[in-house]
Design goal:
The chain is of the alpha/beta class. Helix content is 30%, strand content 26%. Strand 7 (153-157), helix 6 and strand 8 (185-189) form a beta-alpha-beta unit. The longest helix has 17 residues, at 165-181.
């Protein structure tokens, strides 16, 4: 579904992503892991076009997308849930959801019904301001907002960060349903190994902006966890 080859990205003089190569199969959940500062968020932002890349290629379903603008990429089928949620606190829940409607085809610019089936708590709070929701509710809103465009691929950047355990379990169930039952390709940046093992089919480990290991989850050995994931 997504093929990344020899991706290089810089922040000023800092070489953040270094010849990074990664294959994300269609219909699977791929978890991107690594210690803080190794380039996980930068990778997702580069896929979305938020960060300009210096070289390399990003293909979505065989189509090069690296020349497309950040505004164009959601229309190609990319949904993005950023780290920290980044909802609009002064807008209502309804207005937050409607942000993505211009990305949908004309005549279909309404929030899909299945989103309210996935997130009943969101449906009950449509008139409330986004900033009045709890952290877990804001995270659910951020995921729902990304789904409004009916993406082919959902990119999630640490969706469990700062969320209480019972809501983490709810979010895991939603991601599993989206991936396993609805066939959505999921790319998950996650620090919590048990959460990742529960959801992911494949893993990619980054270190200093490079892919140091990738494969199926049963190949995620104790040595890799010790060398690249344990703080």
């Amino acid at each position: 579904m997504i093929a990344i080859e020899n991706l290089n990205q810089y922040y000023g003089q800092s070489h953040t992503l270094r010849d990074l190569t990664l294959d994300i199969p269609e219909g699977e959940c791929t978890v991107v892991m690594g210690r803080n500062g190794v380039g996980k968020t930068t990778l997702l932002q580069s896929i979305m076009g938020i960060n300009r890349i210096a070289s390399g290629s990003i293909k979505l379903a065989g189509r090069n997308i690296e020349q497309h603008s950040v505004e164009r990429r959601p229309t190609l089928g990319l949904g993005y849930v950023p780290q920290g949620r980044q909802i609009f606190p002064l807008l209502s829940v309804q207005e937050n959801l409607e942000i993505g409607l211009p990305m949908r085809p004309r005549g279909q610019r309404q929030v899909p019904d299945y989103i309210f089936e996935l997130f009943p708590v969101i449906k009950a709070m449509l008139g409330r301001r986004g900033g009045d929701l709890s952290g877990g509710q804001q995270q659910q809103l951020a995921i729902a907002r990304a789904l409004v465009i009916d993406p082919q691929v959902l990119l999630l950047d640490e969706p469990t960060e700062g969320i209480q355990p019972n809501v983490v379990a709810e979010i895991a169930d939603i991601i599993r349903k989206l991936n396993k039952e609805m066939g959505l390709t999921v790319v998950l940046v996650e620090q919590k190994l048990p959460f990742a093992r529960k959801l992911a089919d494949r893993f990619c480990i980054l270190d200093r902006g490079q892919t140091v290991a990738q494969g199926t989850m049963d190949a995620l050995s104790g040595d890799l966890v010790r060398d690249y994931l344990t703080v």
